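Re: S-adenosylmethionine structure - here you go.
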Amino acid sequence: MTLQSINIPDEIRELSLATDAADLIDRATKRIEAFMLERDSVTENFVRCDFQLLDQSLSWIQQNHLLTGNRFCELGSGFGVAALLASLRGMESVGIEIESYLVEQASDLADAVDLPAEFYCGSFIPRGISDIVDLGSDVEHVETHEDDVYEEIGLDMDDFDLFFAFPWPGEEHFFEAVFQAGAADNSLLITYRGRDGMHLIRKSSHQ
Ligand SMILES: C[S@@+](CC[C@H](N)C(=O)[O-])C[C@H]1O[C@@H](n2cnc3c(N)ncnc32)[C@H](O)[C@@H]1O
């Protein structure tokens, strides 16, 4: 089983955003900024991604028919903007987040914009991944314990077609290892890499 890179062209930055996606991003950005200002302590693990670029990437993935199905999962969902953007595109969308106060924020935002994405509190790491302790040994910004949250969702990790994650720099390999171990053949993982933009891979049975 290999992970194949799929190059997302830089030109996607020229794709215009749909009005409802731009409104969602605007609304989410204001909520995130207000939330950060209100909190006395800095939420060390919570950083925002380039949601505009993410929506352009989702557009490109759909336009190029790269999906094998319609289920989307945001791994470590924060305010849930990625899951909501996927929901706006008609995908059956969930977010998994370890911090309950962020699950509340994402669920409130979903209600406010009237989208059916669902958010679950727990660890996105399913049970039974071999070597998870070794894989997570150099990872500082992800909770590396396994969980039963997929049971609560009513779907297994290998029922999803597209995953999104925003890893801390240098911790991308952990998300890729969990994806490789738990996701279905031919499913996709898109990660946000800061200045390097979006990175897309497919789990493939071809060498
Ligand atoms: C960099 S933030 C990204 C938030 C959101 N995806 C975004 O792009 O705006 C990473 C999130 O992953 C969460 N997290 C860390 N380990 C997790 C785990 N094992 N399961 C679920 N969430 C996790 C953190 O609490 C944090 O909200």
